[in-house]
């Protein structure tokens, strides 16, 4: 029952994050859809860590280069997702208000992705790896 509540909470967080992203694009005073390119970063961000979890045995207590590379790549993707709207605003492709809404959406979405991995990332009977 706790996992269902966590899943509902994470779904709500994802919906709120996407709402901020869409508000930054579709409000009449902004009306520019360039910030939707951050959707690619939302899709790409969990991929390196998922691949590393498949390749790495978690019984090793020492630091693992494959897992650290995956975390490094994921960090680069997340930083790029925050940098892209700022670059768009500096280039005057979008307004700064739209940039703030997109950055708020990025924060909520990436917190939701992190929460998903924290809740469903363990190797128990109900794990995201089974999906």
TrEMBL record:
Keyword check for DNA-binding: no
Q: Fetch the InterPro entries from UniProt.
A: Vps55/LEPROT
Keyword set, alphabetical order: Membrane, Transmembrane, Transmembrane helix
Any one biological process term the GO annotation gives: negative regulation of growth hormone receptor signaling pathway
Q: Which domain of life is it from?
A: Eukaryota
Task: Name where it's found.
Answer: Membrane
> What's one Pfam family the UniProt record gives for this protein?
Vps55
- GO cellular component terms listed in the entry, alphabetical order: endosome; membrane
Membrane topology, from the record: Multi-pass membrane protein
Instruction: List membrane-spanning regions.
Output: 33-56, 68-88, 94-120
Regarding protein family, the annotation reads:
Belongs to the OB-RGRP/VPS55 family.
Q: List the PANTHER family hit by this protein, alphabetically.
A: LEPTIN RECEPTOR OVERLAPPING TRANSCRIPT-LIKE 1 (PTHR12050:SF4), LEPTIN RECEPTOR-RELATED (PTHR12050)
What does this protein's UniProt record list under function?
Negatively regulates growth hormone (GH) receptor cell surface expression in liver. May play a role in liver resistance to GH during periods of reduced nutrient availability.
**Name of the protein this chain belongs to:** Leptin receptor overlapping transcript-like 1
Native species of this protein? Centropus unirufus
Q: What is the lineage of its organism?
A: Eukaryota, Metazoa, Chordata, Craniata, Vertebrata
Which gene codes for it? Leprotl1
